């Protein structure tokens, strides 16, 4: 094959890719549909000119097109790892965990249901072996939701819906290809009716083996990339090698799913990469992968579409009936999951609700694409698959793909319009007016400064300022006096703007590196939850989302259990250090938002909304500072070390800015600037290292903070520190329940607890104790103790408390005061302690 012709064809394909995207936008069609149509036309034209006798001039080009080495391995080993790996890097995994149930339902359950439904429907109406029918079901069950995602984004659909579809697109391919590999092995082994047990035993091994291989490959790659912190191109090159080595290693060496290995590697890099790589290197890596995935996605569609005319050459009339069965079975299976299983899970409170119009759009948006064609091509290439099975697989997979692209893809926007998903809600319309008003105010200020700097003609400036001012007044008045917006909605709009400003502040801090790379993604994820909470739940949603960043999650509880029972302290130390740094970062960010409320929101929504937002913001700051103070009490000195680290990073940023300014002003040369930047990079790497937190050595310092233990000597304090057990509670957790046996006394190290008994309630804060009365009176508890905020509580068992009470006068006075406050006489306490108390 002439190298000039091949090079021309490849260059022409990239030219087509460049022209297809604006054409798709002009025709308001999905990008993949345009690529598929172009590919089909090219493939059909090549066959036509090669077989026609009209002219032979285009025969070399036609032969080159039909002779391109388009094999299934090219799709599966070259293009697919790129697409899957980039998808994992672009995901907000922490936010997707909020919707993991609907994502798994669509990506795994829907795939299995579609595979079984299509397989048994085909087996019922045809003479094809069941295993071949199930193979066809697995091939056509993998969807390509990229078109739906792009359309939803173009109509400003909620981000949560986009996250669900993106999560489905990632895991859907993994599940479908794993099923394909399993049934393909049965077909090649000549097993006509595989047992369910055989399938179920093989499927988990494919998943687990691939996941372990991908995780291990990613950990090794991250370790190597971290060694080359100053070589961004080297890090990107290693990331390019990672998905391919993980895929090949899983498929060829382990015998597991290469797709799962790529997904696991991408997820691992997504979670750990931002904390191990410099921000600039991570941003460049993401940009490179976005470009690679764009090219790979476009090429895989065009090249796969080139095969469609050849794969349909042996079509028969009876095949159309089978194609109809596949279409009906696949759509019915997807509809059953979307409109049957998902509402049931929502009623059982196992899954968040997905609105009915969106489920309808997801149903019609289940487009198939290049992956389906690549899997069908893999079947046709295998010499161990019967010829008739090859023909049926090729025709049904190709026909079903064409149906989804040419029928569903071209009508998807119309369906979305009929469902009303292209119209903004009144609240979103109000939000758009607010955005315009705020933007115009900023533009007016910037234009005013610009005109002063350039000393433009006053008459021109005055006339343009008058026109601009009239437009601004109209927009602000429309935003302030909109009749369809209730006061509650105005507060919601203000909270959305405030949460958005919080996210922008975080992004600015990430660019300036005042927030460490380790915590940047976590802080940004919390900000995203706050935005979504304000949008969906208003004031209460904002509070809930903001409070979630302060709660102790399952990982923290597991770490506490490991520390208390097995004396394994490093997980708790790492999570506690993360909590320290998170709280410090949040405090710095929240303190800057007051100016945004006064400068932007007050001018749009008025004084009353601004004052309410100030109150909510002040409460958040107080809560964060209270949680931070609790940690300071537990681990004195560590917060100061983190603050010193913040100051060092800030100083490095300012120093770097000064050197850059000097270079731009030609005060220093390029060589000196490069040397200075290298020195800053080395010092920044040292400044990124977080100080070590030693949990074991901090307990005596915490005990000293309690006034109740003020009269104990050093030896007694150390013994008490070893005897106390630390417990962490979230808001709403119950520490003590009524009628529970009295076995311990509790001391509040940080946070607050509400006690309830006989219709009365009272609150306790840091340094106070509870639970002692029931223990001294030797009777079941009559109070319920509920935590009001994330709290750290120390527990002391009965024997040690009795011993401590006899020794400590301060503790005796506290017990007496507590008894008098509740109206309990000293005679009601234990006789052997009455003389002390």
From TrEMBL:
* InterPro entries assigned: Cation/H_exchanger_CPA1, Cation/H_exchanger_TM, cNMP-bd_dom, cNMP-bd_dom_sf, RmlC-like_jellyroll
**Topological category with respect to the lipid bilayer:** Multi-pass membrane protein
Q: Which PROSITE patterns match?
A: CNMP_BINDING_3
Q: Which Pfam families match?
A: cNMP_binding, Na_H_Exchanger
Sorted alphabetically, the Gene Ontology cellular component annotations on this record are: plasma membrane
Q: Which PANTHER family match?
A: SODIUM/HYDROGEN EXCHANGER, SODIUM_HYDROGEN EXCHANGER 7
Q: What is this protein called?
A: Sodium/proton antiporter (CPA1 family)
Q: Which organism is it from?
A: Primorskyibacter sedentarius
């Amino acid at each position: 094959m002439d190298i000039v012709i091949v090079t021309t064809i490849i260059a022409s394909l990239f030219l087509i890719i460049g022209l297809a995207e604006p054409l798709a936008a002009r025709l308001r069609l999905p990008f993949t549909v345009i690529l598929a149509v172009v590919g089909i036309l090219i493939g059909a034209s090549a066959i036509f000119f090669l077989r026609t006798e009209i002219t032979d001039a285009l025969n070399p080009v036609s032969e080159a097109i039909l002779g391109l080495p388009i094999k299934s391995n090219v799709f599966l080993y070259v293009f697919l790892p790129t697409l899957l790996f980039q998808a994992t890097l672009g995901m907000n995994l922490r936010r997707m965990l909020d919707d993991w149930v609907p994502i798994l339902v669509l990506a795994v359950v829907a795939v299995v249901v579609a595979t079984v439904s299509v397989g048994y429907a085909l087996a019922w109406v045809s003479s094809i072996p069941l295993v071949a029918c199930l193979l066809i079901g697995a091939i056509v069950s993998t969807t390509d939701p990229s078109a739906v995602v792009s359309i939803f984004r173009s109509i400003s659909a909620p981000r949560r819906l986009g996250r669900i579809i993106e999560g489905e697109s990632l895991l859907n391919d993994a599940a479908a290809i794993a099923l394909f590999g399993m049934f393909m092995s049965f077909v090649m082994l000549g097993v006509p009716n595989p047992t369910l047990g055989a399938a179920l035993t093989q499927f988990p091994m494919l998943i687990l083996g691939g996941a372990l291989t991908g995780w291990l490959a990613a950990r090794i790659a991250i370790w190597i990339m971290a060694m080359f912190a100053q070589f961004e191109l080297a890090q990107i090159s290693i990331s390019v090698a990672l998905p391919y080595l993980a895929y090949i290693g899983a498929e060829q060496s382990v015998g597991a799913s290469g797709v799962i290995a790529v997904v696991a590697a991408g997820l691992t890099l997504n979670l750990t990469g931002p904390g191990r790589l410099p921000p600039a290197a991570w941003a460049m890596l993401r940009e490179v992968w976005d470009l690679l995935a764009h090219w790979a996605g476009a090429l895989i569609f065009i090249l796969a579409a080139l095969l469609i005319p050849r794969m349909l050459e042996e079509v028969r009339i009876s095949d159309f009936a089978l194609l109809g069965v596949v279409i009906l079975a696949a759509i019915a299976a997807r509809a059953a999951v979307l409109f049957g299983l998902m509402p049931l899970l929502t009623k059982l409170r196992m899954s968040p609700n997905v609105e009915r119009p969106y489920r309808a759009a997801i149903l019609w948006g289940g487009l198939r694409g290049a992956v389906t064609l690549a899997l069908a091509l893999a079947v046709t290439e295998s010499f161990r698959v019967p010829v008739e099975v090859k023909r049926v697989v090729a025709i049904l997979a190709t026909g079903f793909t064409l149906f989804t692209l040419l029928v569903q893809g071209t009508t998807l926007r119309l369906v979305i319009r009929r469902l009303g998903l292209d119209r903004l809600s009144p609240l979103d319309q109000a939000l758009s007016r607010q955005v315009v008003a705020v933007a115009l105010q900023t533009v007016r200020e910037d234009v005013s400064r610009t005109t002063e700097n350039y000393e433009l003609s006053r008459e021109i400036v005055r006339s343009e300022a008058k026109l601009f001012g009239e437009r601004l007044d109209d927009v602000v008045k429309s935003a302030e006096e909109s009749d369809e917006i209730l006061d509650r909605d105005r507060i919601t709009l203000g909270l959305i703007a405030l949460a958005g400003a919080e996210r922008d502040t975080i992004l600015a801090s990430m660019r300036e590196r005042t927030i460490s790379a380790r915590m940047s993604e976590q802080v940004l994820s919390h900000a995203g939850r706050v935005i979504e909470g304000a949008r969906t739940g208003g004031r209460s949603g904002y509070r809930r989302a903001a409070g979630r960043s302060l709660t102790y999650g399952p990982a923290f509880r597991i770490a506490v259990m490991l520390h208390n029972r097995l004396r394994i302290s490093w997980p708790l130390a790492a999570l506690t250090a993360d909590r320290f740094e998170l709280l410090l970062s949040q405090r710095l960010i929240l303190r800057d938002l007051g100016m945004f409320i006064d400068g932007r929101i007050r001018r749009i929504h008025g004084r009353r909304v601004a004052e309410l937002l100030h109150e909510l913001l002040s409460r958040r700051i107080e809560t964060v500072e209270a949680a931070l103070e609790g940690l300071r009490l537990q681990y004195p000195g560590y917060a100061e070390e983190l603050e010193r680290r913040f100051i060092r990073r800030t100083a490095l940023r300012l120093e770097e800015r000064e050197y850059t300014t000097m270079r731009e002003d030609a005060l220093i040369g390029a060589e000196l600037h490069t040397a200075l930047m290298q020195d800053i990079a080395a010092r920044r790497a040292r400044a990124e290292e977080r100080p070590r937190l030693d949990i074991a050595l901090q307990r005596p310092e915490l005990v000293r903070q309690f006034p109740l233990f003020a009269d104990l000597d050093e030896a007694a304090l150390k013994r008490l520190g070893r005897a106390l057990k630390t417990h962490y509670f979230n808001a709403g957790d119950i520490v003590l329940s009524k009628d529970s046996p009295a076995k311990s006394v509790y001391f509040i190290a940080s946070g607050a607890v509400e006690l309830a008994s006989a219709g009365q309630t009272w609150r306790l804060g840091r340094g106070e104790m509870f639970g002692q009365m029931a223990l001294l009176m030797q009777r079941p508890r009559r109070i319920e103790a509920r935590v009001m905020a994330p709290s750290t509580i120390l527990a002391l068992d009965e024997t040690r408390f009795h011993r401590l009470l006899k020794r400590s006068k301060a503790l005796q006075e506290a017990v007496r005061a507590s008894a008098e406050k509740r109206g309990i006489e000293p005679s009601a306490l234990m006789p052997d302690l009455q003389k002390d108390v």
